[in-house]
Specification:
The protein has a single domain, classed as Beta-lactamase. Helices cover 38% and strands 21% of the residues. Strands 1, 2, 3, 7, 8, 9, 10, 11 and 12 form a nine-stranded antiparallel beta sheet that branches. The chain is an alpha+beta fold.
Length: 335
Amino acid sequence: MTTLVPLIDALRGGTLECQHFGAVAVVDTAGRLLAHAGAPHWVTFSRSTLKALQALPFVKAGGPAQFGFTPAQVALMCASHSGEPMHVQQVDGMLARLRLSHRALQCGCHVPLFAELGVTPAPGSYDERHHNCSGKHAGFLAWCVQHGQPTGSYLAPGHPLQQAIRREVARVTGLAPEDLKLGIDGCSAPNYALPLSHLARGYARLASGARDPEFGDSFQVLAQAMTAHPELVSGTGRSDLALMRAGRGDWVTKVGADGVQVVASASRGQGFALKVVDGNKTALLAATVAVLDQLGWLDARQKEDLRPWRAEAIANTRGTRVGERRPAFRLRAAA
C-alpha cells in the first residue's frame, strides 16, 4: 500500500506548483477501518488533538463535580484557544477554585493567537493564561490537587498524572501503553505518536459519549462540553469553531499543530484522522472539508458554511485570483 498520497494540489496559472501529501483513516468505534487515503496506520504525533483524552483521568475521577468546573471550563481543558478574554476568564475561574496562581502553569507564554485577527497585543499584556494550552494545564493542575500529587513536576513523563494519561490514551485508542511513542509538545507536556487509525478510533469513541461501554459518563461530559462551547475549544475565526458549528452538535473536532486534524460524528459512530506531512494548515483544512464531502457528511448548508475552509482560490496581494487549490485524492473503501 502506498504510504502517503497527494491530498491537495495547488496550481498557479493552471500549472501544478505544490502538492501536499498525507494520509487519512476513517474508522468506527470498534476500530474497524472503513475508508482511507494513503496509509491509514501512518504513525504521527497527535499534538493538540490529544487534549480531550489528556483530560480523561481528571473527568473520570469526578474532577469537574468535585471542583465545580462548568462545562465551559471543561471545554477549555480540551482547547487550543486564542487567548481572548473569554478564554482567560475561564482559566482564572479554574485556578481560583484550585487556589493557585497562574504562575503554577508550566505551559510558557506566547503571543496570543487572537493576534491573527489583526489585533497586536502590547508586550507585557499577556502571560501564561493566554497560552493556547493554558486550559489543558489548568486541568493538569486540578488532577494533581485532586489526588494530592506534586504540582511542581506535573509535566515529567514519570509523574503519576502523565502515567495515568498514558494508560487512558492507550485504552481509548486500542493500544498498549508501550506502543505510544513519547515526545514533548510545544507546551512542554508529554505527547504521543500513534497510528492515524487508532487516533480516529479514540475520537469516534469520544463523540459517541454515553454509548461508549467503558468511558461513557466521562465521554459524555467531554463531548457535550466541546460541542456546546466550540468558541472556547477554538476561538474567533478559527477552524474548529467553524467545524463544530457546522456539525450542529454531532461533530467533535480538534486540530493539532503540524498538520493533524480529527473529526468524529456521534450519530454515525465514526471518526477520521488526517495528517498533512508538510504541516501546511491551509492544505490540512481544505483536505478535511474534502473528506467530509466524500464521506457524505455534508448537506447543502454545511457545504456552504465550510466553503471558506476549502481555500479554493489562490489570490495575490492585490486580491487577484492567480491559482487554485483542489483535492487530489479519493477515499478508498477498506477491503
